[in-house]
Amino acid sequence: MKFDSNGAWLDAMAAVRANRQVLLAVAGVFFLLPTLLSTVFLTDVQTQILEAMNKPETVESIFSANLGLFLIFGLGGMLVQVIGYLTVMTLLSDRGRPTVGEAIVVALRALPTMIGIFVLTMAATLLASMVFGLVLGGLFGIILGTSVASAIVAVALIIAVVYASIKLSLVVPVVVNEGLRNPVAAMVRSWQLTRHNSLRLFGFFVLLTIGYIAVAFMTTVVLVGPVALILGQGDALTFYTGVISGVISAVTSVIFIAVLAFTHRQLAGPSPETISETFE
Q: TM segments (predicted)?
């Protein structure tokens, strides 16, 4: 099936508007709140690390002294956001009309699969970087020199990672909407669904990214700039900036999940439950 980006966008936005109250409530808990907590507890530590970037020993000591904070608000926040992604995807699925509680239960059941997919993806990326470095780096290093070979390897790895990201972009709706719990099976299914549409999906995601950057930049300039002039540097401005960035992240996350949900629905077709409901 040929992917229709305009149709996916219009369907996604219609679904977000129709369910905006419950979706924004879920986004506030799973996307906005973790961002605010990270802003409150990690900003000072991150500032210290940035200021000491040219002193590796100092950076290491700062990181070691605050390891607990990074685990709780870094990895913990990431985990909460993944559950939020899965919850929103469940609420936007075509498998009945789940309550928020039921959607969270589905998300928690799908979480181990997503962790497995993440581990496999990281392992594959590491393996690819090693293979590219040894094969391409060695081959082009002999012919063109080390510096040129390193640049070629870096470009090739970036292209491979982007391509794999497009091919695996539908793993979340596959896990949630199709109920696949085997990480490998979910990755294979996403790869199959994106067949013959990789370039269209790539162009669509690039446009979404450009739109997000433009909107986030303009919103930050309009809402943060004047307040920064009034408040000046300090904790109040840091918290306010965290609120604005958190709201932007929450809204865009919901929209992006909706886009993925309706991209999957378009390429995979309606679920069996939807088809059966049509003929009742």
A: 21-42, 62-92, 113-136, 142-164, 201-231, 237-262
Q: Is residue 276 part of a domain?
A: no
Closest CA to 94 of 279, 280, 272: 272
Residue environment code for 49-65, b if the CB has 16+ CB neighbours within 10 A, otherwise e: beeeeeeeeebeebeee
Q: What is the mean pLDDT of residues 227-252?
A: 80
Q: Kindly state whether residue 79 falls inside one of the protein's structural domains.
A: yes
174-189 as b/e: b if 16+ CB within 10 A:
bbbbbebeebeebbbb
What's the distance, CA 113 to chain centroid? Answer: 16
Q: Considering the domain boundaries, does residue 229 fall inside one?
A: yes
Between 116 and 144, the more confident residue is 116
**Are residues 114 and 172 in contact, defined by beta-carbon separation less than 8 angstroms?**
yes
Q: How many residues does the chain have?
A: 280
Task: Give me the mean pLDDT over the 274-278 stretch.
Answer: 43
Mean pLDDT of the chain: 84
The total of other beta-carbon atoms located within 10 Å of residue 133's CB is 16
Nearest to 83 by CA among 116, 115, 107: 107
Q: Which two tokens stand for residue 231?
A: 């408040």
Residue 280 has pLDDT above 70, yes or no: no
Dig out the tokens for 161 from the structure.
Answer: 């990672």
Among the residues of the chain, which ranges form H helices?
5-18, 20-27, 33-51, 56-65, 67-69, 76-91, 100-131, 137-144, 146-167, 171-177, 183-193, 198-231, 235-268, 272-278
Range of the domain at 72: 5-271
Sequence-distant (6+) residues with CB within 8 A of 171 are 114, 117, 186, 187, 190
Instruction: Please report the pLDDT score of residue 234 as a whole number.
Output: 67
C-alpha separations of 68 from 45, 76, 97 in Å:
12, 10, 39
Total number of domains in the chain: 1
Domain assignment present for 279: no
